[in-house]
């Protein structure tokens, strides 16, 4: 499995021959890429409907869109997704097969209004566990990464995601103000009992400026054995 962070909460995850792009938003200071510089993925996964997570979803309208049914419907109407491809609406707790990947939608504690002149709800905000095996078939040979989306610390990370979905790695927001900050994100990493942790959703706007080294120190302070990787944007990372 390969991970590429494109800044903010935008990730490209490769599982086998399948390319998944999460929350495309390239107007952030970590990347110099434009959406047109990025190859069309097979799937676009959206955690929720805020502008800094769906801003460039329309640039990849040949991909299959994976999100809550409400958000899929909004994006199909707003961005003109290819009718021949369409969207894959799913909901919390469900698992869908996306090429060589299995995607399980998890809860996130956040808001999810789409702030337009006709304010609407995009359903529940979400996170995703992406794996090369179905959760019921996962074993020591399989690999899974949990993207928590925009969220606060919640006991579901310990009681459901870590306990039953057993990710090897966690991508967690550390920016504070709108999501968890470094301390709460570190507790999440400890609860999830993962081997690798990746910070996201930081340094994009003044309210969420953070030093990822502080996050790494907080992870160490919990007693977690997870290795923190504060990735440079647009550089691939191989997750074994």
Automatic annotation (TrEMBL):
Origin: domain of life: Archaea
SUPFAM superfamilies, per the entry: Metallo-hydrolase/oxidoreductase
Entry GO MF terms: hydrolase activity
Keywords on record: Hydrolase
Domain Metallo-beta-lactamase, chain residue ranges per copy: 19-202
The keyword Hydrolase appears for this protein: yes
InterPro entries, A to Z: Metallo-B-lactamas, RibonucZ/Hydroxyglut_hydro, UPF0173, UPF0173_UPF0282_UlaG_hydrolase
Pfam families: Lactamase_B_2
Record keyword Hydrolase present: yes
NCBIfam families: PRK00685.1
HAMAP family: UPF0173
Stated family: Belongs to the UPF0173 family.
Descriptive protein name: UPF0173 metal-dependent hydrolase EA473_01585
Species of provenance: Natrarchaeobius chitinivorans
Source organism phylogeny: Archaea, Methanobacteriati, Methanobacteriota, Stenosarchaea group, Halobacteria
């Amino acid at each position: 499995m390969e991970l590429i962070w494109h800044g903010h909460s935008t990730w490209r995850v490769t599982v086998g021959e399948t390319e998944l792009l999460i929350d495309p938003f390239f107007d952030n200071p970590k990347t110099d890429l434009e959406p047109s510089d990025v190859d069309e993925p097979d799937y676009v996964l959206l955690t929720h409907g805020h502008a800094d997570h769906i801003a460039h979803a329309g640039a990849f309208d040949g991909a299959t869109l994976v999100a809550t049914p409400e958000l899929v419907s909004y994006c199909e109407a707003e961005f003109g997704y290819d009718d021949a491809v369409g969207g894959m609406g799913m909901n919390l707790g469900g698992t869908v097969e996306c090429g060589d990947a299995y995607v399980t939608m998890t809860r996130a504690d956040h808001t999810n209004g789409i702030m337009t002149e006709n304010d609407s709800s995009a359903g529940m905000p979400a996170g995703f566990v992406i794996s090369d095996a179905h959760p019921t078939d996962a074993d020591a040979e399989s690999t899974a990464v949990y993207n928590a989306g925009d969220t606060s610390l919640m006991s579901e990370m310990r009681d459901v995601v870590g306990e039953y979905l057993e990710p090897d790695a966690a991508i967690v927001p550390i920016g504070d103000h709108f999501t968890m900050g470094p301390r709460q994100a570190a507790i999440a990493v400890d609860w999830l009992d993962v081997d690798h942790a990746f910070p996201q959703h930081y340094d994009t706007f003044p309210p969420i400026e953070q030093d990822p080294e502080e996050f790494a120190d907080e992870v160490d302070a919990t007693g977690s054995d997870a290795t923190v990787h504060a990735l440079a944007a647009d550089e691939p990372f191989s997750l074994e």
